[in-house]
Amino acid sequence: MNGAIYYCPVDLTLSVVGGRWQGLIVWALRGGPKRFSELKRELVAVNDKMLSQTLKLLVEQGIVTRTDFQSVPPKVEYNLTENGRQLLVIFEKMEAWGTHYSEA
Amino acid sequence: MNGAIYYCPVDLTLSVVGGRWQGLIVWALRGGPKRFSELKRELVAVNDKMLSQTLKLLVEQGIVTRTDFQSVPPKVEYNLTENGRQLLVIFEKMEAWGTHYSEA
Fold it and tell me: Which residues of B touch A7 (CB under 8 A)?
């Protein structure tokens, strides 16, 4: 992706979901589209710059769509693409592991 | 883990598998124990410092064991713990997604 070289399919997938904010944004969008402000509220520790950079990257990677409704006041929504939705099975396994691990 | 604060179980799991080298080392150990030199050969782009730091982190996180056979010449092997093995279902889903995505 973007001309990068990957060892294997796992490496490619890690480049999409491996970053903390990348992963958490994908996961936060599992229930449907969200606005920037909603994502920011949910991921309290993220700052504006990091959130917009990571969203831009996810759009470039074909994981997230950005829809600007051209309205006043401005309304922009982010949503998962079909490729993005297909990542959710990975996150469901991550949730199961993390739940088990944090109880251990 | 290590006193860090996580949003959710997915966030915790990302802290274990999210880093490129963390993830690739866990995946490289799926078939059984490996020596440092074997991991280094497999992950060609990793340097010694990064590999040993990441292995140390994975040991601290309870994902990988380090066994020093106290032999001459020295022999040290890395292997997945039970918690580490339970991560493999996540990687299998990553492999499937990455394979599909790279063909798309």
Answer: 24, 43
